[in-house]
Design goal:
Shape: globular
Structural class: alpha+beta
Number of helices: 8
Number of strands: 27
Radius of gyration: 20 Å
Largest sheet: 9 strands, antiparallel
Helix content: 10-25%
Length: 382
Amino acid sequence: MKIEQRKWMRASGWKPQQAESLQKSAQLVLLFGSTALLEEQHLIEEVRQRYPGAHLMGCSTAGEMCGVHVTDDSLVVTAIHFEHSQVRGGSIRLEPPIDSFHAGEALAALLDPEGLVHVFILSDGLSVNGSDLVRGLMTRLPESVTVTGGLAGDGGRFEKTLVFWDGPPEKDMVVVAGFYGRHLQIGYGSLGGWDPFGPERLITRSRGNVLYELDGHSALALYRKYLGEHAEGLPATGLLFPLSIRSKTEESGVVRTILSVNEEEQSLTFAGDIPEGSYGRLMKANFDRLIDGAHGAATISNRAIAPLSAELAILISCVGRKLVLRQRVEEEVEGVQQVLGNDAILTGFYSYGEISPFSPGAPCELHNQTMTITVLSEDDGA
C-alpha cells in the first residue's frame, strides 16, 4: 500500500505543493473538509484532475485530521494505492420512499459480495437514522464482512452536511466503499470516555430516533433543567451532555447525541434509535478518560491486524469530544499515533456519529461521542 497526503487552507493553499507519485496509480482518494470548502467545486476538480483514475469519497466535517494535527476549514486529501487489493463503491440518496433502513439495504446491493472483506460508509449527518442505516446494511452483507464509518458533520451549526462518491458533494447522500482481496487486513475499535450523572430514567415515549418523554415527562424540559445556562445553545450544547441508552437486559448501553430540537413537539431528535421501554441517563465529559478512550480504540484496532503494522488509519471522532477537549484536542490524535507508530498515516474527521463494532467480533452499531478507528494494512501478497 502506498499513501500520500495533501492539505488545502485558504491562507497557504496546498501543502505540500508537490505530493509524491500516486497521481496515476491511486485507486481511492479520501477527502474530508469543511462544508464551505466542499462547495467550492474548483477544489474538488483539482483533486479529480490530479488523480484521474481514482474513486473520490468524502464528506463535510466538524474538524479535519491530518497526521496528528486537527484543523478547521481545511480540505485533507489522502490518496491510496493498493498493491494487492481492489475498491468499489456507490451512493444512494436519502429521499422518499428511501428511508435509512432501505438505503442501507440498497447500498449493500451495490457491492459484489464475492471477495468483499470490509465496507466503509459515510452518511449525511442530519437526515439519517444511523441505527436503521446500519441495520439495513448488515442485513444484506455476508456475515464475514465488517463495517465501519461515520456521519458527516457541519461544525457546530447543524445546518447542512455533504457526502459524495465520484460526484459533487451533496446533501442527503450515503456512500460506501467496498474493499476486496485476501491480502488486505482490517482492524477497528471504538471507545468513549464519558461519565454518567443524574438518575437513570425510563424512556416512556419515543418513535425511532425521536425522544418525547422520560419518566412520563417532557424530555426537552428535562434536558433544559439539567443543562441550565447551556440550554439556550441547543442542539449544539447537547453535544456536551449526550444520552446513554440501555435496554432492560443490558448492563451497559450506547451513547446518543442530539441532532435537533422541536419546540412545538417538545422533542429531541438523536443520531440513532431511542427505543421506548429502554433506560436513558445523561453523560458528561471526563477529559482524561476521553483521551484514554482514543488510546484504547487504537490499541484494539492495532491488535486486530498483528503481526502487521498499520499503514493507514481512518479516525472518526465525535464533535462533542472536540468541543470538550478544546485546546487539548490533538492529544487524542497524538495518543493514537503513539500506539500505531510513526509509520502509520492518519486521516479522519470530527463527526455527528460513528459506525463500528466496539471491538472485533461485536455487532456493528451507530455510536456517538466515541473515537472510532479503522486501520488498514496489506501483507506482501505471497
